[in-house]
Fold this sequence. Notes:
The chain has eight helices and no strands. By secondary structure, it is an all-alpha fold. It starts with 11 loop residues before the first helix and ends with a helix.
Amino acid sequence: MPPSGNPFEPHPFEQRFDSAMQLAQTGRLEDASAAFSALTRSAPRHLKSRHMLAAVLHQLGRNAHALNELDAAIAINPATAAVSGLRCEILLALGRAAQAADAAASALRIEPYSLPARMCLVRALLACARWNEAADI
């Protein structure tokens, strides 16, 4: 419940998260990165904040840092297809195609019909020259 005691008033953390999302959605990625970083410092186990921080860092090309954030998110909840799917994209960007394929496969075990994870798996398999496996996806 918010500090005011009014159950219909958004909690300050939710307001800060919504503000960070707005920054990301309007392309203010540096500001969004700072806002999500502050959120993860104040609530280190908040999965959505870590996931969004990683997504913004990936968009900024800071893939090693993004991967660290995703690994922290996976430690919080390993059964999150969106996190594993983004991990695949980041690993591909880092040139780690075999690990990317593993991340996509993990995402598909959680959410078998995830099109983004399936597409990432195909790209990862192609990058590993695993043509026949990619053709079967």
